[in-house]
């Protein structure tokens, strides 16, 4: 990575922190978002000069279409509908973090065939280097899987929050034993994640030389994480949603930070974890302002007919 | 690649920074700040671009496309919404004073 890109990422990380600091005092809150915006612009422009990238034309289509849709929806939405728009955009961020992890895991399945000769082994290692990660280590895989779970849960959970606040999904869905179902789904998500991490052959230095899982396992892993995000959010009532959205915001931040480590990108690590911790504190403050502990918001409605709704 | 212990330093200091930045924030700024931090994790766009730039084959390209699309939406949408919210905040402040 060239020095210019490194410096741009560093500047972006500084501007994000500076911008957030500005945003947290009423006097100059407006400048804060502008500073952070400048940081984002610098980082994005610098990434176009990242060495060894391909698919520029399709990438531009993705950036332009995503930007236009978000800009248009963000501009025309009514002020009162802001919380669900935050939920929607936050879900998109979580989905993006999950997509990064999904791509890394998909790449790993290419190492499915055991390298039988030295040439194949060197080929596998050079392939990994070509993919921008100099040999995925077991630690990187574990963190990628961890980030994938958080990002996916934030994605589907935020979308449910959006649908509920938008009034598309009406009412609060609860049934007896929902808490047990949720726990089971959560444990299966973790279990498949751990399974993926154990199904690899590791060479010296923790570098993965062979992956014994295939695409089906990766797909099942993401599907179950998606289901957990939905199940977790479905029983929560509309009044509690801002707190839940803030929680998903913190989770997305953490997922971005973790995937930043997977990609060796310090700007993502710093910005992601800053949002992760700031978002966690913000979630606590919001819950406190509503006079409700977070555990109450998240779990009180599960299974037992929501006394908290009254 | 960033070494394990250095990564731990970065994570810890970033977590501390995030906590400090938010610690004394008035209640009226909760939602704009949530939106602002939502914009900041739009930096995932950078990572999505890099991963998509290395994608090979239709499946990887599709996942990469979805990632970049979603990340761009996060960044742009987060900015627009935060800006509108803080704009309203500023004008209502003027009326009060």
Binned, the helix content of chain B reads over 70%
* Spatial shape of chain A: globular
Output the helix-strand order of chain A. Answer: HHHHHHHEEHHHH
Structural class of chain B: mainly alpha
Order of helices and strands of chain B: HHHH
- The total strand number of chain A stands at 2
What is the radius of gyration of chain A computed over CA atoms, rounded to a whole number of angstroms? 21 Å
Query: Main sheet of chain A?
Result: 2 strands, antiparallel
Cα separation of the termini of chain B: 52 Å
Taking the sheet with the most strands of chain B, its summary is: none
Q: What oligomeric arrangement do these chains adopt?
A: heterodimer
Cα distance, first to last residue of chain A?
56 Å
What is the rounded Rg of chain B? 18 Å
Structural class of chain A: mainly alpha
Beta strand % of chain B: under 5%
Percent strand of chain A: under 5%
User: What average pLDDT do the residues of chain B reach?
Assistant: 88
Mean pLDDT of chain A: 87
Backbone shape of chain B: flat
Largest interface: A-B, 105 and 79 residues
Low-confidence stretches of chain A: 302-310
InterPro entries (chain B): NADP_transhyd_a_C
EC number (chain B): 7.1.1.1
Main location (chain B): membrane
GO molecular function, one term (chain B): proton-translocating NAD(P)+ transhydrogenase activity
Outline the fold blueprint.
The complex is a heterodimer of chains A (310) and B (97).
Chain A: H1 3-23, H2 29-47, H3 56-76, H4 82-108, H5 118-130, H6 138-166, H7 178-198, E1 200-202, E2 208-211, H8 215-233, H9 241-263, H10 266-289, H11 294-299
Antiparallel strand pairs in A: 1-2
Helix pairs in contact in A: 1-2, 1-10, 4-6, 4-9, 6-7, 6-8, 6-9, 7-8, 9-10
Chain B: H1 4-22, H2 30-40, H3 44-53, H4 57-96
């Amino acid at each position: 990575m060239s020095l210019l890109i490194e410096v741009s990422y560093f500047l972006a990380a500084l501007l994000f922190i500076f911008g957030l600091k500005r945003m947290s005092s009423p006097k100059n809150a407006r400048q804060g978002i502008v500073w952070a915006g400048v940081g984002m612009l610098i980082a994005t422009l610098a990434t176009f000069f990242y060495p060894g990238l391909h698919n520029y034309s399709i990438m531009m289509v993705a950036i332009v279409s995503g930007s236009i849709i978000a800009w248009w929806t963000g501009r025309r939405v009514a002020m009162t509908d802001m919380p669900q728009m935050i939920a929607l955009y936050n879900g998109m961020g979580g989905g993006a973090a999950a997509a990064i992890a999904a791509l890394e895991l998909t790449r790993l399945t290419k190492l499915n065939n055991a390298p039988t000769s030295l040439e194949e082994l060197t080929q596998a290692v050079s392939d990994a280097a070509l993919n921008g990660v100099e040999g995925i280590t077991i630690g990187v895989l574990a963190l990628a899987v961890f980030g994938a779970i958080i990002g996916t849960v934030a994605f589907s959970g935020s979308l449910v929050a959006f649908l509920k606040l938008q009034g598309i999904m009406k009412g609060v869905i609860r049934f007896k034993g929902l808490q047990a179902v949720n726990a089971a789904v959560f444990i299966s998500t973790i279990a498949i994640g751990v399974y993926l991490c154990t199904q690899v052959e590791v060479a010296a230095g923790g570098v993965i030389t062979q992956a014994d899982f295939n695409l089906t396992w990766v797909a099942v892993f993401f599907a179950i994480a998606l289901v957990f995000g939905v199940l977790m959010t479905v029983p929560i009532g509309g009044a509690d949603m801002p707190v839940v959205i803030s929680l998903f915001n913190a989770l997305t931040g953490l997922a971005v930070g973790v995937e930043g480590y997977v990609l060796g990108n310090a700007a993502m690590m710093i910005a992601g974890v800053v949002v992760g911790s700031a978002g966690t504190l913000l979630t606590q403050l919001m819950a406190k302002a509503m006079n409700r502990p977070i555990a109450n918001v998240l779990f009180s409605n599960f299974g037992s007919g929501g006394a908290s709704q009254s | 690649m960033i070494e394990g212990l250095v990564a731990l330093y970065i994570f810890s200091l970033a977590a501390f920074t995030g906590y400090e930045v938010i610690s004394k924030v008035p209640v009226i700024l909760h939602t704009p700040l949530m939106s602002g931090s939502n914009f900041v994790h739009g930096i995932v766009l950078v990572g999505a671009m890099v991963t998509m730039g290395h994608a090979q084959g239709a499946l990887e390209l599709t996942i990469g496309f979805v990632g970049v699309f979603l990340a761009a939406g996060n960044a742009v949408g987060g900015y627009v919404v935060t800006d509108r919210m803080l704009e309203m905040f500023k004008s209502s402040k003027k009326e009060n004073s």
